[in-house]
């Protein structure tokens, strides 16, 4: 009898020990990854894929915590996607689960303007092939700005055809704060990235000096997290070397709630000579409503003076959409009735109805950011005017259109 009691006692102690170890492991996991767990559980699908229309799915995520971007900058950023992946994997999954991040060739069009009641807006089309997207809300604290941005999920290696199918894909989405395509922060600063097709064979910018380094989308993240206005954003960017990702080149637009905007282009001579990416210099094309006009436009067309002097204008990427937006905005002096008219303006250059000069034949998302109110209207896959595909964004939430 005593032997049986001892055996029962030993078995009980064994299972209690196992239970204690399990609880300790759960506590350790929570301590290490409580922010990541909260972010993953916040992911929601808000629009289904539709292969017949070439639509990918749309998701939202509220990012918990500061996603280590302060540390990223303190460690001098990254020169390429490999370095960026190494940093993200080490910080977010502690090296246990590999993560990926990449960029691809994208098209796109954007403009700044004002509404009839004086509010400033930033409208943007993201043009690509079928892909899945995510609207990402961040509020890192520590003196950094809250923001809402849009991410192409193929950039974090979520499968284009299947979308998010399980926990592994959701973990990949934890890298999304490092890959914004456009967004607005709580200071009313908005920004976007646009392919620029520079050089004879599209050479990515790769400046190498003694400055710290940023890749294409991490530069946008820095602007969203830290910039109070356009001038401050430009001042920050000038302190870094830019390294474009995905073997392609980009230029950028930044705007703020005062109406000031700037297009940032790293160039070296003309398009036919711009083949040494290490020698490119930053050229800034400002637009101040008080001095220059009420709007600014960007597509894939380089706007630096004389850049295409050796290239027939019709061969320059994005010149058709640039002229179409100019024709829509100029007669109105860049003053639109409201954000809805801004969305109708973006519909003019939606890619499904155009004779495309490249393979980016779909407009994946269209968004009009209100820089005054820090809100946005967001439409997926050119479903303009369709309530089930129209979403209202603020810094904290993504809501269906009423």
UniProtKB/TrEMBL annotation:
Q: Does the keyword Transmembrane helix apply?
A: yes
Name one molecular function that GO assigns to this entry: hydrolase activity
Q: Does the keyword Magnesium apply?
A: no
Record protein name field: Linear amide C-N hydrolase
One Pfam short name: CBAH
In which family does this protein belong, per the annotation? Answer: Belongs to the peptidase C59 family.
Organism taxonomic ancestry:
Bacteria, Bacillati, Bacillota, Clostridia, Lachnospirales
List the InterPro entries hit by this protein, alphabetically.
CBAH/NAAA_C, Ntn_hydrolases_N, Peptidase_C59
Keywords for the protein's UniProt record, in alphabetical order: Hydrolase, Membrane, Transmembrane, Transmembrane helix
Q: Where are the transmembrane segments?
A: 7-33
Identify the residues that the record assigns to the Choloylglycine hydrolase/NAAA C-terminal domain, covering every copy: 108-268
């Amino acid at each position: 009898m005593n032997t049986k009691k001892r055996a029962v006692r030993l078995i009980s102690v064994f299972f209690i020990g196992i239970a204690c170890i399990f609880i300790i492991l759960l506590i350790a996991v929570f301590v290490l990854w409580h922010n990541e767990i909260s972010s993953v559980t916040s992911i929601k699908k808000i629009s289904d894929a539709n292969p017949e229309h070439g639509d990918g799915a749309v998701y939202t995520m509220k990012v918990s915590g500061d996603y280590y971007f302060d540390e990223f900058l303190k460690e001098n950023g990254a020169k390429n996607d490999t370095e960026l992946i190494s940093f993200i994997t080490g910080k977010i999954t502690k090296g246990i689960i590999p993560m990926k991040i990449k960029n691809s060739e994208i098209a796109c069009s954007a403009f700044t303007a004002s509404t009839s009641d004086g509010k400033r807006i930033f409208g943007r089309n993201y043009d690509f092939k079928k892909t899945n997207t995510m609207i990402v809300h961040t509020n890192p604290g520590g003196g950094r700005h809250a923001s809402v941005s849009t991410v192409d999920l193929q950039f974090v290696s979520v499968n284009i055809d299947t979308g998010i199918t399980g926990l592994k894909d959701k973990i990949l989405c934890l890298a999304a704060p490092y890959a914004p395509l456009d967004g607005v922060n709580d200071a009313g600063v908005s920004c976007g990235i646009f392919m620029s097709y520079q050089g004879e064979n599209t050479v990515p910018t790769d400046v190498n000096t003694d400055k710290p380094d940023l890749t294409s989308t991490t530069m946008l993240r820095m602007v969203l997290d830290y910039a109070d206005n356009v001038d401050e954003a430009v001042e920050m960017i000038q302190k870094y070397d830019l390294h474009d990702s995905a073997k392609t080149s980009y230029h950028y637009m930044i705007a703020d709630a005062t109406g000031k905007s700037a297009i940032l282009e790293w160039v070296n001579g003309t398009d036919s000579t711009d083949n040494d990416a290490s020698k490119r210099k930053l050229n800034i094309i400002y637009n101040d409503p008080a001095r220059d006009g009420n709007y600014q436009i960007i597509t894939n067309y380089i706007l630096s003076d004389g850049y295409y002097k050796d290239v027939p204008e019709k061969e320059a990427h994005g010149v058709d959409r640039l002229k179409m937006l100019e024709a829509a905005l100029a007669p109105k002096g860049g003053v639109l009735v409201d954000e809805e008219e801004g969305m109708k303006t973006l519909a003019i250059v939606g890619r499904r109805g155009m004779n495309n000069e490249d393979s980016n034949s779909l407009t994946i998302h269209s968004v009009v950011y209100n820089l005054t109110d820090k809100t946005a209207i967001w439409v997926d896959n050119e479903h303009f005017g369709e309530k089930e595909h129209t979403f209202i964004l603020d810094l904290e939430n993504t809501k269906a259109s009423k």
